[in-house]
Amino acid sequence: MVRQLFIRLWAVVRKEVVELLRQNRLILTLVIGPFLILSLFGLGFRNESPTRDVILLDPFGTGLQDEVEAFIPNLGDAVNLVATTTDAVQAEELLKNQTVDLVIIPPQDAIGSIRNSEHAEITILHSEIDPFEQATVNVLGRLAADRINQEILTRAADQSKTEAATANESVDTTRDHTSAMRTALETGDEERAKTELLALQQESDQLAMAAGAMAVYASLQETAGLDSLNETGTNPLLGTTTSLQEQVSNFVINGDDDYTDELASLDQIEADLADVEVALEEFAAIDSTVLISPFKSNVLQLSEVPISDIDFFVPAALALLIQHIAVSFAALSIIRERRLGTLDLLRIAPSSALELLLGKTIGYLVVIIFIAAILTALITLLMGVPMAGSWLIYAGILLAVTFLSLGMGFVISTISQTETQAVQLAMLLLLASVFFSGLFLAIERIWLPVRTVSWLLPATYGTALLQDVMLRGQEPNALVFGGLLGLGVLFFLLSWRALSRYLRRE
User: Fold this and answer.
1) 341: left (phi > 0), else alpha (psi -120 to 50), else beta?
2) 473 Rama class: left (phi>0) / alpha (psi -120 to 50) / beta
3) Are 277 and 433 a contacting pair, CB within 8 Å?
4) Which CATH number fits domain 52-127: 3.40.30.10, 1.20.120.350, 3.40.1710.10, 3.30.1050.10?
5) What is the model's pTM?
6) Does domain 153-292 have CATH number 3.40.1620?
7) Higher pLDDT, 205 or 83
C-alpha cells in the first residue's frame, strides 16, 4: 500500500520535473533573466539626488540676488543656478516646461518680518509629482534655510570674538589698575588708591558688557555639561564677570592704616580676572562654525557585513521572483491538466487528489529550488551580495516561501476557468506584492488595517526573513516564520479541498 503510494507520487513528481526541464529556454530565462535585471539595476542605481537647475526670481526687487547667488554654492552639487530674473511669468513658464527644476524666491522684506517676530520665508517652487522627490525638495528647502541661519550666526560669532579680543585688552588694563591699587594700599597712598579704584570700576563695567560676547560659549559649556550652574542658576563663565563687577563696585577703602580686607578683596579680583582671561582665550581659539554648530551626527550601521544599496533590494527581489515563478507554475498546472483531459483519467485512476497535489508540489519545489540555488550562486559570487547568516536557514526560508506560493497558485488554478484568467490572477498577486511586500516601501509605512494585505503575501515573509538572515546575520523571527508555514499549510488544504470537489464533480 505504502509502496504503491510512493510509486504514484514519484510518477507525478517525475512528470512535472521532466516536463519543466525539457523547456530549456524557460529554465534559462528564469535563471539568467532575473540575474541580468538585478545586475543592470545594481550598475545603474545611484543613491544620490540629481543636481537641480535653479532660477532665482526676485519679483519684489529686494536686491538680494547677489547675496543669494553667492550663497547657492554652499549647497554643494544639489543645485545649479542657471539664471536670475524679475519676471515671475517667465520663471513659472520655465518651471512648467521643465526647463528648470526649481524657482527660488527670496523674502520680500526679511528685516521687516524679523522685526515683527516672524520668519523671513524663502519660497521654493517646484513641479515634482514623485512623492519621494517632493520630500527631497522639502529637505533641500530646510537645508538652504539652515545654511543661511548658520551663516548669520557665524558672522555674529566672528563679531563676538572681535569684541572678546577687545575685552582681553581690558583685562590687561584692569590688572594694571589692580596692581597699582595694591601698591598704593601697601604704601599707604590712599588718594592714589581711590584714583585707581575709579579707573578699576570703569574697566570692570566694560568687562561686564563684553561678557555678553561670550554668551554663545557659555551656553555651549552649559549644554555640553562642561560646567555646572552655580547657586544663582547662572553659568560660572558669565557669573565671574558679574561677580567681578560687583566686587569692584562695592569696594570701600576704610581710611585707617590697616588695609588687610582691601588687599584680600584685591586677591579675589585678580583671581576673577585670571578666570575671565582664560575664558576669553578659549573663546577666541574656537572656530566660529563650531561655536554656532557645536554638535554633528556620526551615523554608524551596526552590521556584521558591509551592505551596499543594491544589497538591500536583492532579498526582496529574490522573494518576489520565487513567489511569481511558483504561483505561475501552479496557477497554470491544473488548468493545463483539465485542458489536456488528464483530469478525466483521474476519475478511473488509483491516484487521489491529495497524491496529485503532493506530487505537483514536490516536483515544482525541486525545480524552483534548483533555480533559486543557481540565482543565489550568481548574486553572491558575481554580485557580491553578502550572506551573514546560516545557509541552512536561508534554504528553509526559500522552501517555505515556495510552498506557500505554490499553495496560492493551486488555489488560483482550481478557481480559474481559463489559462488567461489564471494568468491575470497571478499578475494581480504580483502587482499587490510590488506595493505591499516591502520591496520599495517599508510595510511599517502602510496603514495598519491595510497592512493585513501585506501579511497575506509570500513575498512579504520572504523579504523580512531573507533580509534578517542575509544582511543582519540573525535567526528568523519565530512568529513570522510560523505565520509563513501556517499560511502555506492553509492554502495547500484549500487547494486540496477545491481539487477534490472538482474531481468529484467530474
Assistant:
1) left
2) left
3) no
4) 3.40.1710.10
5) 0.72
6) no
7) 83
